[in-house]
Amino acid sequence: MDRRQETRVDVTLPVRIWGITDHSSPFMQLARVKNISTAGAVIQGLRPQVKPGAIVDVQYDGLKAQFRVVWAGRHGSPREGEIGVEKLETEPCIWGVNLPRCVSLVGNG
């Protein structure tokens, strides 16, 4: 059963992400977003391991926002290199798309 409160839209967006690894080392790298909602996203292609609860900065198309890591794919699992993030409440939506319209188009497709 899906626990999400919002529908996600599948996308492929290039992002720059930086934060602190689970070994307390700073990192910055390019990655890609797999899907988005107004409150969160799944980011894939990460080399460093990041712990749930960590705060990361994500930049897309010149816009930046901070997100909290909700889950992280385990080493050796099919989700290795992926993290689920939710936007901090005070941060802007950086995706630059009309998500309610995308959701209605997906739902009616």
Structure description:
- 9% of the residues lie in helices and 45% in strands.
- The protein has 109 residues and is mainly beta.
- It has a single domain, classed as predicted glycosyltransferase like domains (Thrombin, subunit H, Beta Barrel).
- The protein has a six-stranded antiparallel β-barrel with strand order 1-2-3-6-5-4.
- A hairpin with a 3-residue loop joins strand 2 and strand 3.
- The longest helix has 10 residues, at 99-108.
- The radius of gyration is 14 Å and the shape is globular.
- It starts with 8 loop residues before the first strand and ends with a helix.
- The model is unreliable at 102-109 (pLDDT under 50).
Task: Please name the CATH architecture.
Answer: Beta Barrel
Runs in which pLDDT lies below 50 for 5 or more consecutive residues are 102-109
- Please give the share of residues in helix: under 10%
Secondary-structure class:
mainly beta
Q: Could you give the order of the helices and strands?
A: EEEEEEH
CATH topology: Thrombin, subunit H
Instruction: State the name of the first-level CATH class.
Output: Mainly Beta
Measured by DSSP, the beta-strand proportion falls in 35-45%
Report the sheet with the most strands, covering strand number, pairing sense and barrel closure. 6 strands, antiparallel, barrel
How many strands? Answer: 6
Total DSSP helices: 1
Taken from the alpha-carbon principal axes, the silhouette is globular
CATH superfamily annotation: predicted glycosyltransferase like domains
User: Rg, please?
Assistant: 14 Å
